[in-house]
Amino acid sequence: MTERTTGVYGYEGPPCVDHEGHIYYEPDILREEYDIEPVPADRRLEVVVSGGSMGGLFTAHALGQSGHDVDVFERTERGEMRGRGAGIVPDPELLLYMERHGLVEDRDEVSVVMDRLDYLDHDGSVRESRPYTIRSTSWDTFYRPLRDAVGEDAYHMGTGVVDVTREDRTATARFEDGGSATGDLLVAAEGYGSRTRERLLPDVELQYAGYVAWRGIIPERELPDDLAEHLGEAFVIYHGPDFQILTYPVPGAEGSTERGDRRVNLVWYENVPTGEELDDLLLDRDGRQREGALPPGKLRPEIRERQNRLARATVPEPLTRYVQTLDDLYIQCIYDLKVPRMVFDRVCLLGDGAFFVRPHMAAGTSKAAADGFTLAEAISTHPDLSTALEAWEASQLELGDRLVEMARQRGDRYIGRF
Ligand SMILES: Cc1cc2nc3c(=O)[nH]c(=O)nc-3n(C[C@H](O)[C@H](O)[C@H](O)COP(=O)(O)OP(=O)(O)OC[C@H]3O[C@@H](n4cnc5c(N)ncnc54)[C@H](O)[C@@H]3O)c2cc1C
After folding, report:
1. Is 267 in the pocket of ligand 1 (CB under 6 A)?
2. Atom 1 (ligand 1) nearest CA
3. Residue 18 confidence (pLDDT)
4. pLDDT digits (tens, 9 = 90+) for 12-40
5. In the chain, how many domains are there?
6. Residue 145, Cβ neighbours under 10 Å: how many?
7. Is 150 part of a structural domain of the chain?
8. Looking at ligand 1, which residue's alpha carbon is closest to its atom 25?
9. Residue 277 belongs to a domain
10. Is the shortest distance between the CB of 400 and ligand 1 below 6 Å?
11. Which stretch of DSSP H or E encloses residue 387?
């Protein structure tokens, strides 16, 4: 369908049909081109970025294209970021950006291309196989080259920002170790639990969506042959009565996309009410009560056994075997989050720290990148920083709001029952 129609979310674009047959409107997160030009020396900014994951790194890279001097501060200690986000299904434009800027040589070589969606029946057979092209990558596909491009001297690990202050035309980040950094602009890309957002917008709260995502990943070659053959090739979906399981192949730990070297990624959405049940899942193996997520390596053995039992009772046999083969499972709670503002003098919020979009749109990384690209673009195309930030905020508030609503509707339709 080529006719342009006014979309249900206030977005004008052609309607699409998703893999479930529902009509939706292409979220249009990233463009193919951004007008990010080098700025004259007297307009170069000192920029402090708090948070060195997707939002922080894409922002730092894009601002660096204009010649701004950017320092990124990441609270995680060196060596602990690796493999953080497992599989990522990126927007094609994101891979194009990586290729154009020499961050990857060839986007085809860093992504696994699947050509079908397989829906499983409860007996494990393929109920329906639909032609559908999807590319998957992993968090490392972006993290490593971006961090290298930002440079060792500008990427400061183990440096958590504990406070942010706003001065006349500057902002300052204070670190756990007592140090500080002042910039013409401070970008907080701190993820959904952003402390800077909590301080700037104390009334804004994360809304738990009523379900969690269980995640896991395993090298293809550690799977039994029949599973490796199927799960290593297709995007596999199973809908249970109040849960949904997705598996898809992603590049191997060293980035290889060859058959046999890949890994198979799990996302298992399960309804879990708040209170005792959720707290129990998030109590880690060292006795520490976690909130919002249970990181890899921290699941208690009895919870792992709970999940294996649940799989045996409710999940098709091939996926049960797959789940049981995974060395580790970890948990991410799913939230909705919207902010009414993203700019506070010389401080701005972006990525998941501003709008947390439920993962059903596979939009979070692209949105975090879009926030960074459009920020760099606004600064290079507006006459001064204040008008640039004003224009940037208006466009990204609209995008964030639209995506949160679209993802909420999808999630509630597929999983949420609370
Ligand atoms: C189950 C699941 C599946 C997903 N699948 C996809 C997908 O297929 N495609 C996709 O595009 N997206 C996907 N996403 C979303 C994607 O992972 C996020 O949207 C993206 O990582 C957001 O990037 P960010 O930089 O804003 O936040 P984060 O990645 O959360 O990074 C925030 C960073 O800031 C650091 N930090 C926090 N506070 C401080 C501080 N005070 N000082 C210094 N550093 C700090 C943190 O350590 C972290 O490194 C998925 C998410 C989930 C939960």
Report:
1. yes
2. 213
3. 59
4. 445 555 555 555 556 679 998 999 999 99
5. 2
6. 20
7. no
8. 55
9. yes
10. no
11. helix 385-414
